[in-house]
Amino acid sequence: xxxxxxxxxxxxxxxxCCAWFVYPFxxxxxxxxxxxxxxxxxxxxxxxxxxxxxxPFWRPFMPSFKSNLTxxxxxxxxxxVSLSKNLSLRLHLESKxxxxxxxxxxxxxxxxxxxxxxxxTETFQNDAILDAIPIIKKLEKPQISASNWPEFSDKIYPLIxxxxxxxxxxxxxxxxxxxxxxxxxxxxxxxxRLGDESNIKQKLADFLxxxxxxxxxxxxxxxxxxxxxxxxxxxxN
Length: 237
Fold this sequence. Notes:
Elements: H1 2-22, E1 28-33, H2 41-50, H3 62-72, E2 76-83, E3 89-95, E4 100-104, E5 107-111, H4 127-130, E6 135-137, H5 149-166, E7 173-176, E8 182-186, E9 190-195, H6 200-213, E10 221-225, E11 233-236
Parallel strand pairs: 1-3, 4-6, 6-7, 9-10
Antiparallel strand pairs: 2-3, 4-5, 7-8, 8-9, 10-11
């Protein structure tokens, strides 16, 4: 009887192991991304194929696999693994949301808030995304190199945050002059000179007060100067 139990148990183990290797139990068979312009699906699939994820013993190490995946693809914000009907796994990656765009020589570079360059092609054409984030124009490539992006990001963060709060309903376009002054194109046509990043909240509060209580729809304004906190200069046509 004992021998019979051993034989049956061994046979069951062999059958289960064979099925485990042959049938795609808990193996990644589908890979998808939410934004192909940010995460290259071809490179992602090649990475998945090259790892041990198809080996049955990789499964206990899923957290390590996710960590390595985000290290390899820094534009990834979230990794989702779901179970399909045939008990295989679906891998879906969510990219980090764009925070700001930089326009250089008609090419657009999108960056996440932590400074990751998201789009790997400069011919990015998703208008829904571009309309939802500030676009910094007239930048030179050395200004946003990989080595100095953290410093540049820290410099413009207060500016971008204040602008997106003050003008939440507008597509913002800003650029920097040779004198390091920031210019905001209000309604895409009226340049507002902001000066440097200092006292930006006060400057924008001055403008919003002027717009709410002084600016009339019939006024033909050609430019506004906010470089001095507490003062506002308006140029009329």
